[in-house]
Structure to design on (621 residues):
């Protein structure tokens, strides 16, 4: 299978000939669907809407003592926001008088009402095939086992989707390929589109040289070289929401009534027609179409979109996660119903191991620092939908900008003053040691921490990573290295500062970084234990370094061929850690080391170590 790169889709005005071609095509398509509706009218569903299904690809394969990790729900919810909004609006207004690009659209159903949002809790049990709400159109198994597989097959048979959307992190990619193969078996003419963090990490286009950079573990490459069957039609990487909206409009432009095939080649050609119709292109990223003979990469170089321009990710979905660290609402022993909120998609820092670094993710979609009031109003909206808490899942809250944090707290305070329901709402966020210890803005930091606590912040999560100096000197996180004890003392000072402002602190600890050995492992476990003894940590989450495509440490360790495609059922001790699988964890750790980390941290940290029931960040969405 050859790789072909097409010219980038960029903002531009359509030429008259292109406008006429599109108008003619829309008229012919309207006539085609009208004839089909006359021959076989459907008593319930709009014949111009085609069945669609999305699935959150899980990571876990069994429930045996694992840390629950379903993947990245918010990546999927965010990616669906524009296409769902467009579909819901089309369903509400009906068919326009004149042929339109949005005549034919994916059938996402209606937005859930307030009663549905407040009633729904826990993993989805609604059958996608029977659901008329946007929330019910996501297959969300949380675990990939025989039960989930049979449920997925049942949905495919009942719905026969025209399009299946799969969102996957790297550790779930092997199961995404299996789900795609099942779709091709039980809904043979279904188009399969894969997106999510794994796609973002593995599909790149270099503008300067007009060349593609595809990781060996990318969906495109594993299909091109025969490691996986050709069961995927498109891969979307980058700004998921506008790119997916563009792709699904192209699908709708060329699709035919019923359950017949929709040729990938025609969809690729239709992308330019859709952008011509709009007169502009939004979003930045890449769309790859996979035909029988070609992998066709279409770079999209449109206008950047701020997060405030996109619908709330929860507009179409009920909040289902519960996070045990939040208990103020007192509505459940499992903790408060907790929403994920993000103010930016990529971390501004450059830690060598992190796939969320701007160097790797290249996902700059974010709220501007001037849009703090908009974020506060989204919190108000979440409360109206029955949400009791929120965790700001940014790598660093507001990018570590203390003015933005201060402004957000003031905006939230104004809403809390006039809305009693907001006063019991609590939230948490992620910060870093160096952001808290910003010496140049010490007064501003202390004032902001007070404002955070006064306006509902009860929890801050910090990535400590290691307490061994010989490890931290390689990481790129410890920005100020003044003496051999600097990192340990800085961690203690940062945690003390946050605690003294009345906010609890949890942490992640990462084993397997450069310089790691059994001595540094023991040193870190003991030092974290001392922080727990001194009441500076209420939760500590041990993690094993897992190689992600594109990170600096992956390249430095020569791990350019990561097997994220072969079917593997995970096993202990790897299952005690998020994302850890044999063959993709740090080469500096053997299995005995991983068993030691699991057992020693459990013994030294006691109940402060996170368990399978309570992960470091909210699980689910």
């Amino acid at each position: 299978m050859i790789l072909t790169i097409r010219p980038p889709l960029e903002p531009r005005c359509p030429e008259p000939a292109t406008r006429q071609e599109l108008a003619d095509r829309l008229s012919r398509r309207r006539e085609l669907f009208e004839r089909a509706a006359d021959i076989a009218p459907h008593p319930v569903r709009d014949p111009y809407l085609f069945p669609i299904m999305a699935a959150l690809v899980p990571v876990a394969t069994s429930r045996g003592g694992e840390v629950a990790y379903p993947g990245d729900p918010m990546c999927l919810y965010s990616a669906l926001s524009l296409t769902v909004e467009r579909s819901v609006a089309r369903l509400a207004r009906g068919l326009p008088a004149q042929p339109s690009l949005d005549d034919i659209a994916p059938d996402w159903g209606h937005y859930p009402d307030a009663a549905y949002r407040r009633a729904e809790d826990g993993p989805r049990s609604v059958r996608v095939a029977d659901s008329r709400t946007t929330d019910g159109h996501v297959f969300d198994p949380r675990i990939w086992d025989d039960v989930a597989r049979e449920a997925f097959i049942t949905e495919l048979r009942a719905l026969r989707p025209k399009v299946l959307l799969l969102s996957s992190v790297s550790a779930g990619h092997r199961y995404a390929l299996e789900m795609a193969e099942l779709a091709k078996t039980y809904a043979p003419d279904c188009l399969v589109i894969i997106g999510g963090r794994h796609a973002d990490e593995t599909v790149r286009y270099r503008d300067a040289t007009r060349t593609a950079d595809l990781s060996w573990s990318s969906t495109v490459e594993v299909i091109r070289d025969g490691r996986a069957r050709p069961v995927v039609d498109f891969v979307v990487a980058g700004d998921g929401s506008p790119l997916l909206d563009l792709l699904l409009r192209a699908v709708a432009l060329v699709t035919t009534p019923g359950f017949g095939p929709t040729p990938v080649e025609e969809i690729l050609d239709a992308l330019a027609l859709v952008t011509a119709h709009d007169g502009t292109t939004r979003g930045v990223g890449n769309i790859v179409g996979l035909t029988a003979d070609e992998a066709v990469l279409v770079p999209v170089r449109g206008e950047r979109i701020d997060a405030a321009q996109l619908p709330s990710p929860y507009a179409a979905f009920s909040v289902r996660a519960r996070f045990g660290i939040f208990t103020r609402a007192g509505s459940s022993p499992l903790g408060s119903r907790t929403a994920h909120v993000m103010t930016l998609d990529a971390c501004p820092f450059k830690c060598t191991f992190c796939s969320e670094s701007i160097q790797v993710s290249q996902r700059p979609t974010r709220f501007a620092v001037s849009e703090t009031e908009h974020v506060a109003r989204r919190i108000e909206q979440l409360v109206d939908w029955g949400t009791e808490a929120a965790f700001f899942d940014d790598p660093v809250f507001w990018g570590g900008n203390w003015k933005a944090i201060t402004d957000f707290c003031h905006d939230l305070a104004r809403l809390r003053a006039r809305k009693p329901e907001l006063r019991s709402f609590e939230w948490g966020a992620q910060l870093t040691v160096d952001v808290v210890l910003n010496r140049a803005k010490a007064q501003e930091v202390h004032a902001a921490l007070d404002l955070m606590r006064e306006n509902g912040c009860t929890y801050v999560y910090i990535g400590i990573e290691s307490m061994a100096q010989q490890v931290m000197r390689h990481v790129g996180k410890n920005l100020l290295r003044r003496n051999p004890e600097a990192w340990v003392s800085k961690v203690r000072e940062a945690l003390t500062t946050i605690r003294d402002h009345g906010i609890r602190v949890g942490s992640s600890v990462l084993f397997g970084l450069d310089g790691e050995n059994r001595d540094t492992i023991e040193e870190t476990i003991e030092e974290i234990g001392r922080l727990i003894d001194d009441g500076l940590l209420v939760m500590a989450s041990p993690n094993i370094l897992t190689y992600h495509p594109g990170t600096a440490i992956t390249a430095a360790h020569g791990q350019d061929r990561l097997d994220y495609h072969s079917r593997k059922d995970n096993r202990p001790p790897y299952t005690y850690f998020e994302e850890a699988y044999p063959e993709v964890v740090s080469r500096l750790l053997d299995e005995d080391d991983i068993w030691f980390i699991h057992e020693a941290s459990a013994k030294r940290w006691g109940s402060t170590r996170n368990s399978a029931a309570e992960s470091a960040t909210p699980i689910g969405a």
